[in-house]
## 1
Amino acid sequence: MSSIISDMDPATAQLILPELLMLGGIIAMILVPNFGDATMRIPLTKIRIPFLIGGTRFATTNNPKLPNQIATTTLALAFMTSLLFLSEEGDVGNLLHVDEFSRMFALVFSAALLLASLATTVRLPARPKASAPLDTDSTVISDAKVNALIDNRRQVDFHILLLTTGLGMSLMAMATNLFMLFVCLELASLSSYILVAFHKENDVGGEAGTKYFIVGSVVSAIGIYGMSLLYLWNGNLDMTDLAASWDAMEGMDPLATIGVGLMLVAFGFKVGAAPFHLAVPDAYAGASSPVAGVLATASKAMGFVALIRLLLVVTMPSEGQAFWFLALSIIAVVTMTWGNLAALTSDNPKRVLAYSSVAHAGYMLAALAATGSGLADSDTSALIVTAVVFHLVVLVLFKLGAFLILSMLEAEGRGHRMEDLHGMGRRDPVIAASMFVFMLSLAGVPPLSGFLSKLLMINGIVNVSAGSGSASASTALSWAQGVDPVFWLAAAIVLNSALSLFYYLRIVLVMFFESPATEKPLKRAPSLRMAIIACAVLTLLFGIGPLSNSLLDMVGSAVDSFMGS
Amino acid sequence: MGGERLIDDPLSVITLVPLAMGLILMILPRVLPNSSAERLIQVSRNISMGVALAIATITTMLFLGQLGSIDWTNITQGGYVLQNEAVDLIPAIGVTWKVGADALSFPMIWLTAILIPISMLVEWDAKRAHLFFPLLLIMEGALLGVFVALDLFVFYVFWELTLIPMFLLILLWGGEDRRYAAMKFFIYTFTASVFMLIGILVMYFHTEAIAGLGSLSGHHFDLIAMTAQENLIPNEGLRHFVWLLLLIGFATKMPSVPVHTWLPDAHVQAPTAGSMLLAGVMLKMGAYGFLRISVTVFPESTIEFVPLLIFLGMVSLVYGAWVCMGQTNLKRMVAYSSVSHMGLIFLGIATMQPLGIAGALFMMFAHGIISPLLFAVAGAFKHHYHTLEIGSMRGIAHHSPWLAAHMMLGWMASLGLPLLAGFVAEIAILIAFWMTYGWLVLLPALTLIVTAAYYLNSMQRTIFESNDSEHGILPDTLHGEDPSDLTWHENAGMLTLAAMTVLFGIMPFIFWDMMSDWSSGFVIDTMIEAMQAQEWSP
Amino acid sequence: MIEASWIVGLGVILFSIGLLGAFTRKNAIVVLMCIEVMLNAANLNFVAGASHYSDVDGWVFTAIAIAIAAAEVAIGLAILLSLYSTQETISLDEANILRN
């Protein structure tokens, strides 16, 4: 084992540059707002040199907007460096391996967090001009002033947590050791528990945080226990080594099987699969919208990386059906159906989005399940993983975009009831049009990117089941009886998508057909508005045309780098 | 042929230019600084009209220059003219930008290109013109896209895209109940197209990868290759299922009973230009898609389901005509008469004969000029008489001679009087139907005759008859004032349509030759084999 | 020297106790304690594995897992405080304003 110091040569530093940047951002976030004009006297002389930490803060470091700027810059830099060094590949120590696959996910994570950070300027505004309340102020004004001061105080906390979440997630995507993977997952999870509870303006924040935290920690304790069983079984937790032992295993070793099963519970919770999804809608509804958006996109992507690594790297048998195929298929179908049915009955747009996110997890799980059916060749498996990764990438655009729009509503103290969306088409046509795009993309309507990813997933499943179903059968029914069970996963996705149209269209329809409570346009928030419009435009561009194809190529080569290794 | 072309790829140009121009005209005023935005808004109506006219000119030139001299019987199945070099859109899943025209789509393309400037002209004084006219341009691009696309993905995208401008036209410029009508329109057509999408996807998953397409997925959306692939869906039951899914999508758009109920509401609430395009072109998308996809790719299933087609056609025809008689609202009347005419199209296709299919094609075209004329008349009624309830009016010819003349001509054409465009189509379909199904033809024929008599009588009363020769009976909405006659632009638009109605009544061969040639080729290429395989005879 | 299997057996018992408690108890603090018990069961496994395979990784895992557990408790208590300040309860059953 080489020492850490010798590993930190420039080439390695470049490999993990985005992560180093995030780390730097965290340190800067702690230090910079404390910079002041303090000086230090060199002992025995009268020379005072600037000491920076402490004293009266400078105008720039005193600005409450600073943490947001640091976070946004850091995440933007991390995003750009990830993009720049996308094809760099190499080991960092013996716990991390950087390749296109992990870089792709670093892109997803930093993009999602960047958008959340942008949205925070509206959702949790910093107010440089805030002042202490005067005795002469009325209660209302004094409350407002106090809230403004509190908002200013919270800036650093919130943004530091965003960065730690990002750091944990992107390190996690490159972990080659199961334990490392879990530690990074915990770093991101623990940060996100606090972010969920951060929403303190009303009573729901604490409750949402508590529920999310309790369920999350129980399942992660289960996961760690499962991992410890794997350790007992194999003697180390390196994933390639585990995979080799798994392949060599005769029959099913109970220790290994139970271990993997327990870990699946933990990762299943991260992606919001049934029956561990019950905390998801509560958490999303209670968290502020940008955070809920991060949970629905980045956090879900994180869960899927872990699942893909565990299922496709460690436990994929070289031939025949994987032991998790049936269980995962059932979970997938239950998850998507449950999610869609619950979304249909919900009256809170955030809950609708939360349940829709559960449903989307179901679609992706179904696609992953198909790889374990024992019928998939390597091309088909690559297609399916490409589809899932592509879906996770574009999900950042339209799912998070929808949450960003909700966060604009939240900034005016609304956004928790369907009525708050009423008449958006009249109040703010551009935002309503973007929401329209997001909803259609979530529903999977061509030519939006949501359709492309769903089509690829269905395509993968259908290719797996290709050739089954007798061509000579004379009726559709007898044909259906002859088809391989995997096919029904595709059918379930199609039926569920059709079902989901109803609640997505409902949101669209209330935006255009109901009368708003107020005619006032939404807050201007130019940066967030630009972000939302950019999301909407990219949702379209990644759905059809050359840009979508280059993204597909990018994801495809990332998946190749993963499947090839 | 290539060297003579003025524009290299005319079909892409006529599709994409209006889309782009419409979008630019809508977005630019929001982006530009105030003063230039104002100026742009003032001229955006003229620019839109200019673009629409240019496209109408290009399309007409195409017809006069090249298409007129083509021997359509040789353009066999899967043969298209004016095809472009396919441009890859998403090669990984096999989506290409591939356009082409044939005798099925070209009349529709020309019709769209002509109708857009006319409907702009009729609504020349529309409110919020800086949004209205660009929206019509977007509509034009979307409609043309449906008719030229030879890739099912692109076809579906344009199919859905037509919904958005029409939805906005109804919602923003519609009548009092516009929200309900727009919502109903959207939900009906959107839901139906989801069924269609599922059908298309099943077809997609049965395609085999062709060179350079579908590198990732192993499938493609290319319609020509789908048609060429032997036995696209080998399983018979599944094939029928797909055919039915597609039928749901197309029949709702046409619309056919029992999924027609969105149409009257949408028409009544839509602005005049919206109604004209809805009836003139959008309804034809259903029939077009049916012929282009269902019949072309699955002739066996079509033959299998001929009884269903006849049933749907008959019910639509009779029910539409019957309900139409009970209406007092002019737009509702025209809407139900449209349902009735669309039933005839199904009957024409169900004959499985060149004559019947050509009749159906001509019906699509003729109805595409007659119903806009009638909707323009209805719009003018709304404009000058402030009501659409014409049942109680008498003797309007005295006040609005031009309006009365157009209305009379429109109804006569719609009812299929000889020497007007509708006659050719109806008689062709009826003859073909008689040749195939014998005396079953009595039902449609009698329906047509009875309704014709009824309408001519009631129109005659509304327009001419009057106890009081000075004033007639005018609606209360005028508050005793005398109504005005058509404005110059309304009249210009209607005169063009009326002239076309007469022109294609007297000289149907302009399009008829091309349609009947194509139909013969189509039946021979596509149907015969399938008919023999199924031992089908009427 | 105690056999590794005995340690693992103890771990199983601890894990079961923790899991059972986490699902049945309503008091959030008690649930938190149950989670700690489960984490300790995992730690025991790591220790057992480390001694069985004479592998130093297991000790490292244990140390890090203890650190994670500590962080989890700190965060958990903070979140519970925030719940208590708004709803004046830490019972998981009584906190239910989020149900629609």
Note: Helices of chain C lie at 4-24, 28-53, 56-87.
## 2
Amino acid sequence: MIALKAHISRPSGFTLDVDLEIKPNGITALYGPSGSGKSTILKLLAGLERGGKGDSIELTSEGTTWQNNNTFLPPEKREVGLVFQQQQLFPHLTVQGNLQFAQQRRHVNTGLDLEQINEWLDLSSLLEKKVDQLSGGEAQRVAIARVLLNGAKCILMDEPLGSIDNPSRSRILPYLDKLHKNLNIPMVYVSHSFEEITHLADYLYVLEKGRIKFEGPMIEMSSSLALNAGEGDLAATVIQCTVDNFDDEYGLTELDFEGTALFVNADNPKPGNRVRVRIPARDVSIVLQKPSDTSILNILAVDIVSFTDTQSPSVLVKLKHKQQFILARITRKSLDSLHLQPGQQVYAQIKSVALINDSVSQ
Amino acid sequence: MIDPDLISLAITLKLAAITTVILFVLGTPLAWWLARTDHVSRVLIEPLVALPIVLPPTVLGFYFLILFSPNNPIGQFWYSLTGHTLSFSFSGLVVGSVIYSLPFYVQPLQVAFESVKQEFLDAAATLGAGPLDRFFNIVAPMSRRGFVVAGTLAFAHTVGEFGIVLMIGGNIPDETRVLSIALYDHVESLQYDKAHLLAGGLLIFSFLLLFVVYYLNRRWQTDHTAAH
């Protein structure tokens, strides 16, 4: 486990004041707007940020000090891999040359070879290309492969999809999912996209102005009203389900969500797999009685936990189903006219459910 | 008997070649340091390196002459080491040329080094490459244009030097009489046909050298941009 305590002040007025841990498994995400200190934290972890006079930094990995006021372990000795947002592949080498560069300087033998990495990231058609001939998404895949071949013990990703246009972004996310599922080394994922975070993160730190505003496991955090209140239309909850069976006739997958069936349009995932499902708050509505004649398939019996206290036309309502939570976004008018109160039993109608990924075992 | 102008040509080429090699060894780390450091001494070192561009060569030559004299500790040290004085010797010319051509080597290389983005060095470092590994496998190949330009300018500039040679080297046949001095001699003694040969030769040589440098520069540049 990597632990970081940092207090840094810059002449520009920016201060970073954090105390955080990188979990030994899964993806730890740093989420926040630009200028919130995410990238500075990543640079500290990688050894690319030394801090100035008066700053205090205390960085340890498995009990070994990497950096404090007297010690500085240079980046080449930290055995961490870093994937940047911007161009980072060496332009004087081919794709193959870039991969060889990493392989020749491998930190530890993780047992990953080019064949395996190639299978995850689809590189075979790119190997002979010059770096300048790659698209943004291809270049990021090569950059990730380079880090994997390098045998990093921890992978840091700084907005890896930040400079990639939207269609390519949705094409590269499945590759990251695959890594998430198959790799058992810790990753730190920095992003200002809530969607990417809900997709990938296992543990979440929300940063604002150099401070940790919220932290917790992603599944719990995804139902936080405080966190979602600022997301507007993008507010969404992530829940964990188990794949039950695939209905051939209708092309739907039945999921087990705390004992209740949820139907989702998905390509035949393996029964028994734990999956992550994303439910946008705007697609959840609340009814007082269980509706019988409705086209909506997914209806859950839920308890109202709380709602946002706001004067704006819409409110977020936090609902509990057994041990998990979902959010509904409804109008304040509906909230008042239905006389909704915390503790009340209601039904949630879910219009759309999206399967995110086969998540790692938690 | 070999034509004395041919001997001058040989001395000139030898001087330029040795100077360029010494600059390659000493000037490269200096250029790298200047490109990356934010140490306060940089504000002093940078103008010192550039000084020979604006200073009349005779001024440099004058100070070298004083420095090389056996009455001076440095000149004395050299004398006790070799039994010769640095002034009026080929070695003295090499020392003078290295200083005189230093900015022509260091400045283009410094510019090339500065254009190597920090991201590439950071990426190489996290991939396990130490400082020397990063320099030889990332910085050097990415700065090949800078090396060619710097080497060519240093070489050509040394071939063309006159004032400093006259001050510290004098005009000793077989030892310090370089082409530019020989040309001056021919003009002094009104041997214009010989002067034409040397002047024309130097003109064509300099033009061809610069032509090749600019051509290579342009081609690498289009290579680079076309690929983006």
Note: The domain at 4-40+51-221 of chain B is CATH 1.10.3720.10 (MetI-like fold).
